[in-house]
Structures
1.
Amino acid sequence: MADIKRKGTDVTIVSFGKIIKLAHEAAAQLEKEGISVEIVDLRTVRPIDYATIVESVKKTNRCVVVEESFPLASISSEIAYHLQRYAFDHLDAPVMRLTQTDTPFAFSPTLIDAALPSVERIVKAVKATLYRN
């Protein structure tokens, strides 16, 4: 079962694994700007606890899914589909998917940092779902 790690009212961030730490850092940064972020830690991806995600999005009306995988055929695409199917009337913005860039994965630390989601990219994605710059 998924776990709500942080309660919020403006946007839901869904993530899992070690990248969840970046979601917490981004939420803390956004809180300073008056943006309340709810964080849902999937904890497992098989099965996915869709019910917890849907209930969170029904409350916040927005969702950013953060994962380290490639964008094609990813967990974030499954969650985005599920939300548009079962929470469409509650969404005030499209589901934002923040994944690794769609490039071959490099082994250089600089290129890895450029390819993976970061706190800065998460903050930018959350603000985009809120239609803020």
2.
Amino acid sequence: MRKNGIKNTRINGEVQKELSKIIQNEIKDPRIAPMTSVVAVEVAPDLKTCKAYISVLGDAQAAADTLEGLKSAEGYVRRQIARTVNLRNTPEIRFILDQSIEYGVNMSKLIDEVVRTEEEKKEEKTND
């Protein structure tokens, strides 16, 4: 079975949507940061395992606490997905911290800083 087949892509999207709803609305763990988002979900073709990439807005401690809270709620999340998504097997979910959004924001800031520095140099040359 192909890993990125149409069926697998559809399952990934459905599980991601349901996982986002569950994290935002149903889990009441205070360790989970309010600005937690599900960036991507990869369900294995045999539907046994699932990697959920999570992004947390906040510092490193908030991200660590959120991951800990999600891991403790893993059974509840799996049960809720089993109820809402009609799959032969409900995958075992592994939460992975995804820092790509934070990395992109930092790179954007660095690029803006370089552009601003270049513009200041041009203004100094024109003023001289």
